[in-house]
User: Fold these one by one.
Assistant:
Number 1:
Amino acid sequence: MRLNDTTDVALRVMIYAASVSERRFTIDQIVDAYGVPRSTVMKVVNALTRGGFLTAQRGRAGGLHIAAPPQKIGVGAIVRHMETDFGIVECMRSGNACTITRCCRLISPLTDARNAFLATLDKYSVADIAIAPAEFGLPPA
C-alpha cells in the first residue's frame, strides 16, 4: 500500500508540530524544514486544520499549533483523514468494472491487509513519531 504525497507531508507537518511543542510555527518554517513546495504545505495545513489536528491563528502573532497533546493524536486518524481512496484494486473502488468481482477471492485478503495496515498505524500517536527540536535546528522546547 502506498500513501499519497499529501499524507506524507501531513505526517511530517505533525512531526514538526509535536517537536516544537507549545510554540507556534508557520508554513514557511515547514517549507524550510522539509523543502516541500509552499503550495503543497498550504493545502496540507488547511486539511489538517479542517480535520482538527492543527489550529491556526491569523495576525502578527499568528501561526499554527498542534490542536491536542501529541499522545492523543493517532497516526491512523491522520492517514484516514488525508487519504482519499483506500481502494487498493479496482473492485474496491467506486465505478468497479471488473468482471469477476462477484466471485473473486482476492477482495477479502486485500481488505484484511488494508485493515491490518490501518490497525498498525492506530497503535501509534504523533508523540511516538516526534523527533527532537534539534533535528530541525531549533532550540529545545
Number 2:
Amino acid sequence: MRHFLSIGIKFVVICTVVLSLYSVFQNPGVLSLLGISIALVGLGYLLGDVLILRRFGNLTATLSDFALSFLVLFFYGIIMDIPTWEAGNMALFSALFITVTESLFHFYMQNRVFDEPSYNDESYRTTKRINSRTMQTETSDEVFPYDVRRKQHKKKNKQN
C-alpha cells in the first residue's frame, strides 16, 4: 500500500511538470504526455527509488533521476519532431524541476516507505508533562534585591 501511494505522489509531480512545460512551449497531445509521464514514473521508481536509493543514498539517486529524466524527455522531444535545441532546453528544465522534487521525494521514501528513518523520533521528545502538584515554587531574597534592602531598613527602624 505504501508503494502505491508513493507511486501516485511521484506520478502527480512528474505529470504536473511534464504537462505544464511541454504544453506551454509545444502543442503535443495530452495522451502522449501522460504516456511519457507513466514511462518516467515506472523507470524512475524502479531504478532510482527502489534500487539506487536503497543502496547508494539520496545524492546518487537524485543524480540518476536527473539523467534518466533528461534522456527520456530529450528522446521524446526528438521523436515528436521538436527541433533538437528546443527539445534539449525543455528536457533540461523539466529534468531540473523533477530533480528538485525528487530529492524531497527520496526523503519521504527513506522515512515512510523503507522504514529507515534518518533521525530518531525519541531524540526530539525532550519535553515531558510535569504534574503541577509535585512542583513547588521558590523565591529567594536575591531575586528582589530592593525588597531585601527595604526589609533590612524596616528592621533597623524597629530596633531604634
Number 3:
Amino acid sequence: MSTNTVIAIVVAVVVVLLVILGLSFMARSARDKKRRAEADRIRDEAREESARVEKREAIAAETEAKARAAAAEAEAKAAEAARLADRAASHRDEAASSREQLDSKFQHADELDPRRKDDADAAYALAEKERAKHEDLNDGTHADHVERVEHDPQHRVVN
C-alpha cells in the first residue's frame, strides 16, 4: 500500500470518527434539550400545584385557629357554667335555709294565733285578708289582691 492510500484511509477513519462524534454530540444535545424542556414543564406544574397547596395550608391554618378559638370559648363557657352552678347551689341552700326559718315562723304564728282552731290554712288566709285590708286602707292598692290570695299546705302564698 502506498503512503497516499494509508493517508487516505487514516483521513477517512478520522472523518468517520468525527462524523460519529458529531452525531453523538448532536444526539446528546437533543436529548439534553428534551430533558430540560421536560424539567421546565414539571417545575411549572409544581409551581401551580404549590399555589394550590399553599391555599390548602392557609385554609387548614385558619380552620385550626377557629378550632382553637372555639375550644377556648367552650372552656370559658364551661367555667361560666360551673360558676353559675355553684352560685345556684349557694342560692338554693340559702333559700332552703330561709324556707325552713319561714316555715318555723309560720308554725310559731299558728301556735300563737287565738283564731286558729285546727285549720292553719284558714287562719293564715284570714290573717292575709286582714293584712291586705290594712294595706288597702293605707294605700288602696291591695284590694283586688286579697281575693286572689290562697294558701298552700306549706304556708306559701300562691296566686
